Amino acid sequence: MIRRVGSDLVRSGAGLAGLALLLAVTGFVVLVPWLWEPGANAIDFSVAKQLPSAAHPLGTDFFGRDLLARLAVGGRESLAISGAALAIVLVVGFVYGAAAAMLPRRLDAALMRLVDSLLAVPRFPVIVIVLVVFGQTTNALTVVIALALGGWMIPARLVRLELVSLRQRPFVLAARSLGVGPLRLVRLHLFPNAVGVLLVAAFLELPTLVLGEAFASALGLGITPPTATWGNIAYDGMDEGRVWQVFLPSVAIALFAIAANLLADGIQEALGAGVGGRGRLGMALERALRALFGRPRRLSASAP
Asked: For residue 110, what is the enclosing H or E element?
């Protein structure tokens, strides 16, 4: 089963390329800090502002800190912050979208008009305003909240659209006829069928969150040095007029964004492959979620 699911994921080539690139970036930020010396915050003015060399493959910054180590540690910090923000985005987006889909039409319409209004507000200015308000108290949690505030609306809309289409499916109507309540209906029937939308939304949203963290740090509003992130590495490079130091985190962010988007395409194809628009990956995810949350009662009409 794992082999067949994997074949669906990488059949087009986009999923395979995205997965390989994502594993390469993740492996770099996880393994290099453990394997490479000196550390990311080791200061040595005798080697300050050096170009790439054998001792420092990516060069050094103004304080003589190794850029290879800082790029890896900074990537780990950026991805951790973005991952935490993504978790909040997906939870809030699913709850909001599910509530809108299950409520009466007038309330559904009101909730969606609120989402439309929030989507009309540019995201990055919201991040800047939140971080400026917090000012000197800015920390990782503050950045996570600022990123999440501007990102939950699109997953909410996608989930709502998916659940509205599922509400009229035979297996949902059969569950309702048997007296299954709204919460149990969402937990056992709608959530497993909407997980594909959440997965695709997650990999499409994650690069935006990484870019948002880098944008905030590049303006001096994100995580403060000496803690490294991709954003403040670029900020230090701009402050010192070093194009190379700006180029390195920019390439890392671009590679991560390409990997996430390719993987999102591969997941979408795997979820949509096969009879009835559901691939083996989609069916495997649904079975896993049903096993996790419990099996529903046998219905007269089964899920497609």
From this structure: helix 105-119
